TrEMBL record:
Residue ranges occupied by any Thioredoxin domain in the UniProt entry: 12-148
Molecular function, one GO term: antioxidant activity
Membrane-spanning ranges: none
Protein name: TlpA family protein disulfide reductase
Keyword match Transport: no
Lineage: Bacteria, Pseudomonadati, Pseudomonadota, Gammaproteobacteria, OMG group
One Pfam family per UniProt: AhpC-TSA
Alphabetic keyword roster: Redox-active center
Organism: OM182 bacterium
InterPro entries: AhpC/TSA (IPR000866), Thioredoxin-like_sf (IPR036249), Thioredoxin_CS (IPR017937), Thioredoxin_domain (IPR013766), Thioredoxin_ResA/DsbE_sf (IPR050553)
Length: 148
């Protein structure tokens, strides 16, 4: 019996992979799961008026293409998880928000202006860096919508 329990415990530990990054809800994500998908990364802040205007557009975009496109947010000002959750609720964000900043992984400079949206192609390269408020349609216009 002890051998069986040890074996089951070992299998359980072996199947637990550490995620590449986490969202504000503690959900783990793997960069490999993003391969072959469009990735839209939106930088926002609670004090940014245009950011408040565009969040509903990104919510709509994320809901419309849940399998072929992934929308992530990044709070421009790093904060602790409790404050982050308050900010996410205040902004009405329904898509995942990075608990960190993915700019180094994807190889772009951290934005200095808000709002900024980075679009990563399904191949993993930077497709577009958009400064200023975006809409669902403006994002779809730069992405080949036939690939969604």
């Amino acid at each position: 019996m002890p051998r069986t329990l040890f074996f089951l415990f070992y299998l359980l530990l072996a199947s637990c992979e550490k995620a590449d990054f986490y969202d504000s809800h503690g959900g783990g994500h793997f960069y490999e799961d993003l391969a072959g998908k469009w990735v839209v990364i939106n930088y926002w802040a609670t004090w940014c008026g245009p950011c408040h205007e565009e969040i509903p557009e990104f919510n709509r975009l994320a809901r419309a293409y849940p399998t072929s496109l992934k929308v992530f947010g990044v709070n421009f000002e790093p904060v602790d998880p409790d404050v982050m959750e308050e900010h996410v609720k205040e902004m009405g964000i329904t898509f995942p928000v990075y608990s960190g900043d993915p700019y180094e992984h994807f190889g772009y400079e951290r934005p200095l202006v808000l709002p900024t949206t980075i679009v990563i192609s399904p191949e993993g390269s930077i497709h577009s860096e958009l400064v200023g408020p975006q809409t669902r349609d403006s994002i779809l216009a730069i992405i080949d919508s036939s690939s969604l």
